[in-house]
Specification:
About 25% of the residues lie in helices and about 25% in strands. By secondary structure, the protein is of the alpha+beta class. It has one domain: Roll (Hypothetical protein YwqG fold).
């Protein structure tokens, strides 16, 4: 954790100790802090991406099977904005269909700098042409995204217990549930959530367990099914090998999905190797 991040988290540290949480537990929790990039449509930060806009893809990339959400200019994104091994340049394009039962691969496309691209039909993902799908896309946000360098702490305080019903504090953090709850209470004064977040920890409206951890079993299954032994790249079931690539809080933008969040998760090793086709998209919605 950088000195700047530690200073920024000092109100959280003070509030936790005042709440009666032992200082050593608070300090151990603070070591989990991660830098993240909060992208917003207001503020005075540099423009590092945009919601919507034309869909520009290389000729050899097939039409995506879900709507286009946003693009991030990695050349404009400072290297220290996150702790992720992102490419130093090029663009990341994010795609998602905000349905509660949707999850799968193919929600992220990386376009290296200098790659020739052509504009695609943003409704090609819906060959039937359902009117409600087009209406939903019209609700998607549009416009430049500005960077706000932020710090992120876990929003979840539990891990899965011995059954699907029970949960337990995070190992080595016996006060994790109190600390995560406190962060949710006071984070708006330290690092308010934005509509799109790159890196950091995943968040959603009714959170208990880590959304990344919840997505990993499904992601592993999807990768193995898609590759069926055709790749030597490892697929890890260890949550520690996976990271949040991005969060989209759709409730800030899309009418009717006020309690929905899209998570894009990826193995850190796949991210470093630019295997973005292995990124997994998961959706949380609490109607």
């Amino acid at each position: 954790m950088t000195p700047e991040m530690r200073d920024r988290l000092s109100p959280f540290r003070d509030a936790a100790i005042e709440q009666g949480i032992p200082a050593e537990d608070v300090e151990r929790w603070l070591t989990t802090a991660r830098p993240c990039a909060t992208l917003t449509r207001d503020g005075d930060g540099p423009v590092v991406g945009r919601f919507g806009g034309p869909l520009l893809l290389p000729a050899d990339v097939p039409d995506p099977d879900r709507p286009f959400v946003a693009s991030v200019d990695l050349t404009a994104l400072p290297a220290d904005a996150t702790d992720l091994p992102l490419p130093p340049d090029g663009e990341l394009l994010f795609f998602a269909f905000p349905e509660t039962d949707y999850g799968g691969l193919g929600g992220v496309v990386y376009v290296p700098v200098g790659t020739a691209v052509t504009e695609r039909d943003k409704l090609a993902w819906d060959p039937v042409g359902w009117a409600e799908n087009e209406a939903m896309m019209e609700e998607f946000p549009q416009g430049p995204l500005r960077l706000k360098a932020d710090v992120s702490l876990p929003c979840h305080g539990s891990v899965g217990g011995p059954s699907l019903v029970l949960s337990e504090p995070i190992p080595s953090h016996p006060r994790s549930e109190e600390l995560a709850g406190l962060w949710e209470d006071i984070r708006d004064g330290i690092a308010p959530a934005g509509p799109l977040q790159i890196g950091g920890y995943a968040d959603e409206e009714a959170i208990d367990l880590d959304p990344v951890a919840s997505a990993v079993p499904w992601a592993v299954k999807a990768i193995k099914a898609a590759e069926a032994g055709r790749s030597d790249a490892p697929v890890s079931e260890d949550v520690a090998d996976w990271v949040l690539l991005a969060d989209w809080q759709t409730g800030m933008d899309v009418q009717g999905w006020e309690s929905a969040t899209v998570h894009w998760v990826i193995q850190r090793e796949d991210l470093a190797a630019r295997r973005f086709h292995r990124a997994f998209t998961s959706i949380f919605w609490n109607p």
